[in-house]
Amino acid sequence: MISSKEIIISMKIVFYMLVLGVLISSCDFSSRSKSEKNFEKNFEYANESTPLFPNYNTLKADSLNQVAISFWTEGDYEKALQLSNLAYEKSENENNKEVLAMVLNTIGLIQWRLGNNEDAMTSYTQAGKIAKEIEMFRLLGLTHTNRGLILKEEYKFDAAFFQNNEAIRIFKSIMEYRDLAIALNNQGQIFKNKKVNDSAQAYYLEALKYYGKVDYKDGEAATYYNLSDVYLKKGKKREALEAIQKSLDISIAIKRKLRICDAYKKLSEVYETFSEKDSALKYFKLYEKEHTDILESNQSKFLAEYQAKMGSKVKNLQIENLQKEQELTKNRNWFIGLMCLSIILVSVFFCISTFPENAL
After folding, report:
1. Rg value, the chain, Cα
2. What confidence score (pLDDT) does residue 347 get?
3. SS3 sequence, 146-188?
């Protein structure tokens, strides 16, 4: 017969084998869990990013920045911010200060449109520091213009004038007439907010001269709109109507729905101010139609985005559930295998223990 000592040793062997099997199973599960988490993360990121730009991973930071700006121009700030953040990471990895400065300025533009002026100012300031360091004078001027816009909105007129004057000085020195016209228009806006209409009018007219040199129609339409507003405040009906009609004509020619909508609204306001109710009503109806079309278009766009996001979430959930089922199946198989091995070992042990000692 087998001694009690041998029985204890055999039981210990069985116990250790079971423990070893559990440890192996746990290690494999941990490794799989980590890889699956990475997979889920990458899948979710790809699904949220791919609709923005299918080959975004192949693009360099400067190209991503350009795509982000195009989305910003269209008013799609969510996609613009997502791509500019990616461009920021890539420009840092590429150690490209020039692109990093441009990306920071783009992020500032997006944050400004989203109403986050504090972060926008931080982005503009950092972009300006880099631009000055590496002598990117046009970008430096743009950061001054953009900072001036925020300060104007916050009614910090002295600081706004300082930033905008720096922009005007830089653009004149490097003969960037498009940017100079924009800065001059912004100078007019600061004066208009201060209710100094004569100075505002002078800067708008100067801006229009430079727009003519570069054929920048969008800026020209905006300045004519601002000029019409000043004429209206000064009670000049004919000049106000001429200016806003030019803004409308340009906006229709370049197919800018937002500017068309604004022009109709301003036309209605001018006619109402001078008690021409029929014309005021006519243009207000046109404004309402354009405004409704824009809202419906945006609603459809946002609905499609939410549907895409929901589809991504559902797909991720399906993958997660499938992976959990695979984990359960694998763990169940491990458990069944270990139990079978234990039963076999115990059976062998009892079979051996029942053999007569002289039969061995």
Report:
1. 35
2. 65
3. HHHHHHHHCCCHHHHHHHHHHHHHHHHHHCCHHHHHHHHHHHH
